[in-house]
Amino acid sequence: MRALGSENEFSKWLLEVGDGLSADTIKLPSVCHPKEQDPVKQLYNDLNFKAVTAEQLKGRAILTVTNDLFIELNNAVLNLITGREGVYDSIDCNLSENPQDQLSYIEEFLNNLTPTGMPPHKMRFKKCAVIKLLRYLMPSKDLYNGTSLIVTKLQRKVIEEEMIGSSSKETFLFPRIPLIPSGNNIPFSCKRKQLSVRLAFSMTINKSQGQTFDEVCFVLTKSVFTHGQLYVGLSIAWSFDSVSVISPTKEESVFYKEYEIYYGFMDCPTDLHAVFKTEKVVAESLEAAKWQEQC
Q: Where in the numbering of this chain does the DNA helicase Pif1-like 2B domain appear (predicted)?
């Protein structure tokens, strides 16, 4: 928890959220509900994007519950930044040895897919855009999966970035690299050659774990899965003043409050029966875990 020492009320409320003491719904303080219900305008309306700097952008984030919204929000913020835009298309190929798969899943079809953990086929960037790494590229330089960077220069086939918070101001060149999706979310094997990064103006709550922002806007048009998930998102803020919530009501519903779902950088235990007491809860947790994998 990163609440300031002077924010005792925020600290106490945050712990109650994490412990699930608010029953099925959590009462959100009125100070967290802005009049502006557009998350992009709410978080970035005070910035002059004609002269925006990386320092102004790196301390802000829009958090969503699931994946279906954060890509749209990322593009909306990018559109506000002035300057030249670089567009980078991937090269996709089907690795299946089945002739029928080769005929059914052609390159144009693969271009429309974005498997879990993979960058999209078409990527847009501008100078000062906030991005995150999707792979472990250079651990000796702290370039891990999830590392935050700022785009400093756009070239024809590569982008140049600087690590956020780095005192050395060292820049890195990221080219397109071959990426093969893991998991079983697609019924065939394929490869995508693309930049291993994504825009990070907006992200899911799970992906924000372990970070700290000066200003955070939550888009809670969908209910969170557990009190713990909401706690993860709220704990990256400093105080009530740094949190704004876009929600239909001033209360947030919570799914599956009876148990903790393992997500983010934690490993899901293999023996679920040792954690969950009844078959009913085990069945519900397995279903919820599938939802989390899609996030």
A: 108-154
What would you report as the CA-atom Rg of the chain, rounded to the nearest whole angstrom?
20
Is 275 a member of any domain? no
CB count in 10 Å sphere of residue 242:
22
| 228 closest CA partner among 21, 52, 87 | 21
Q: Which domain holds residue 243?
A: 5-255
- Per-residue tokens: 126: 């501008």
Q: What is the count of structural domains for the chain?
A: 1
Residue 136 within any structural domain of the chain: yes
Q: pLDDT for 166-188, tens place per residue? A: 777 889 998 899 999 876 678 88
Strands (E), 171-256: 171-174, 177-179, 190-194, 197-199, 202-204, 215-219, 243-246, 251-253
**Largest pairwise CA distance in the chain:** 65
Task: Characterize 247-285 residue by residue with b for buried, 16 or more Cβ atoms within 10 angstroms of its Cβ, and e for exposed.
Answer: beeeebebbbbebbbbbbeeeeeeebeeebeeeeeeebb
CA dist., res. 231 & res. 1, Å (int): 9
User: Helix 8-19 to helix 227-234 angle, to the nearest 10 degrees?
Assistant: 150
3-class SS shares of the chain: helix, strand, coil, % to 5:
30, 25, 45
Per residue in 196-226, pLDDT (tens digit) is: 999 999 998 888 887 888 899 999 887 776 6
